[in-house]
Write a structure and sequence with these properties.
five-stranded antiparallel β-sheet; mainly beta; 8 strands; 0% helix; single chain
């Protein structure tokens, strides 16, 4: 998962021929350490991931490994 500053949106690259944008409320599994945790992406003032009532703010210069459900 990579951030695309042109559109202010996070995108998924590996599964598709061109980047697939993510939208608020989309669910997937985010790799944290050696584990994939279920979560969803949301937007407030910044993009963040929500893990059962815990917010994790995404850094636009970092790529994240996800597993699409």
């Amino acid at each position: 998962m990579l951030y695309d500053a042109r559109y202010d949106r996070w995108t998924v690259w590996d599964l598709y021929a061109k980047p697939c944008p993510l939208h608020c409320g989309e669910a997937f599994d985010l790799k944290v350490g050696q584990h994939f945790l279920p979560c969803r992406i949301e937007m407030d003032c910044e993009w963040f991931i929500e893990f059962s009532n815990t917010k994790f703010y995404l850094h636009p210069d970092v790529s994240y490994w996800i597993r699409v459900r």
